[in-house]
Amino acid sequence: MSVQIPRYSAVRPLELSDRSLLQAQLQILQPQISELTFANLFLFRHAHHYTLTSINDSLVIVGCDYHGLPYFLPPLSGKRGETAIQLLHQGIMLYGADELFLEKYLTGTGFSVKADTDNDDYLYLRSELAELHGTRFHSKKNRIQHFSLRHNYTVEQFSAQYKESALQLLDRWQQYHEDGWSPSLHAEIAAAREGIELADKLGLSGVVVLTDNGVSAFALGEQLNTETAVCLFEKADPALEGAAQLVNREFCRLQFTECIYINREQDLGEGGLREAKKSYHPVRMIRKFRVLPRL
Question: What pTM, to 2 d.p., does this model score?
Fold first, then answer.
């Protein structure tokens, strides 16, 4: 049972017991941005110091970015526009406003709106990533074939029996990427580790690719809205060419088959990640904006 949400300016930490409360609000809200799933919020609660508060009968999540700059996410309920304007007047930045939120609640308010392109989400047709039809995906199919010809493998739904092997793969992935260490990568590793351990309690679904070495790739996600699922974590053994492309395809083929779209989150301005995400041909981008308080 979740603890009562305090009135602003009091806050309290986000807890696992808040899942039913937040999921009920998110089900009504039908968000578009990848941050607004319970698992995403919970697993990055330490990285972004997420706390809960209530203002104007609106449920609000307050946090900070990787540089320690405070922000609040778009209010989840109640008088969403009025609440956002009140917090902006108090000098707190709004992070993660999408185009619909800006149009509906902040048009003509005079606040400074900044495009946040490094955090825009990549949105794909699930069927395209599941089938990889056509010449656009030729290189992906080649890499999958390369893997298939060299390894005996099976694809299974993620379950508790694969946790330990998935954590071992995550350790190998982390060691391989140590040279590119950053606060965001550190947060991602910690979140993925906890996501593996708490997948059942968080309601995460996914797949694993099994070879003679155990879990050689895994992907985990959850539903964002009635049409879209988010792939929260996808990791493959860096030594196995084609494993990443295979687990991507199988996640989209076997999971969330009722969804039209897969949201594969942002690229954080990292060139290699941006190139990789673009290579899968997003159908559109979910644009995000930061709204800054008047100085």
Answer: 0.96
